[in-house]
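Give me the fold.
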Amino acid sequence: MMPTGIQAGLWGLLAGSALLAGALGGYFLRMPQRFVAAVMAFGSGVLISALSFDLMQEAYENGGFIATAAGFLVGAAIYTGVNLFLAERGAKHRKRSGTQQPSEAQNKGSGLAIAAGALLDGIPESIVIGVSMIQGGVVSLVAVAAIFLSNIPEGLSSAAGMKKAGRGAAYVFGIWGGIALISGIAAWAGYAVFSHGSAEVVASTTALAAGAILAMLADTMMPEAFEEAHSFAGFLTVLGFLVAFVLTKAGG
């Protein structure tokens, strides 16, 4: 039987591959910004639901309120701090599909900052997959499905914006291909590093990743969704929330 850590890595790679699939669509297909933003709103709702009914609930049940709340706040604080640092260096609009992303000529070093920002956005999601396998050695299919569904619009929107900023295919697909691979490594690490931790440590780690993901949604995905599809952003977010909610209950 395949070791659980390897299974975690493969699940993380699967979820991360959706970023590359989305990037292919965003780079090669001419999609209206309104459509891209609509898909982004749906993906935001999917992740919010998964955070609420899968990750945070599991963390609370396993580690209690204090460990869960502390991890949740620390995750949001870490993400926000690093994101502010990268935003000052040109990565503020890395998820935007329009012309907001700066070119390298406009902001020297912004390409590296955008790459680092994309990595920052993907790591917490991947760690969650690995940590979800600690209890019983079975992955949370709800978490994998939610992350996969939300990763497609992330890659779609960001790749479209990168292309409009004048960045070539090698840069775009190098980033998303690399992050897909790192997603697998991060999922493996999430299992390997925390599998021997106490229930409180596992709960705090799960909640920390959840806090970082929610902060990422508010800082990067939801602004894109509202700016281009504000008339329908709320409804599409609710629809995405409902889809993930149904997956959670079906998986339970």
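The chain has a mean pLDDT of 85.
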